[in-house]
Write a structure and sequence with these properties.
Cupin fold metalloprotein WbuC cupin domain-containing protein; globular; Cupin_WbuC; alpha+beta; about 160 residues; single chain; RmlC-like_jellyroll; Jelly Rolls
Length: about 160
Amino acid sequence: MSDFFLDAALLDELSARARDVPRLRAHHNLHDSPEAPAHRMLVAMEPGSYVRPHRHLDPNKAETIIVLRGRLGVLVFDDEGRLQAAREMAPGGAVIGYNIPPGVFHSIVCLAAGTLFIEAKAGPYAVPLDAEWGTWAPAEGEPGVAEALAAMGAAFSG
């Protein structure tokens, strides 16, 4: 019966896992396999985790995120990488999540330790196409990630 419930102990354990891995992010899948038609997951994220700007070209892959703990910033870009919108999301805040339609470049930045959110989008999992990555931003592990992350975070300072 305990597998039915998403409780504080699960969220605490997921946050601890995120703190202990180099990407500063940990997932707990609520779907059974990468081939599942709907992907739902809990994600713990810590400040310093880099999510490269990307889009989902599949017309069925809108992406929804709802923040459960902490603070997360969402950034929306045009096709050339110019920032179009930046909103802070937090439980009980003015914005608690987003629903990004397919084809829109976006990213997230963690603004507080212990941030957790639920993410949902259509499956099955597909390796992102080159055209789905924002070419103006470095890939994870490439030079320039620290600068890109600092620039994204600057949209939420002050």
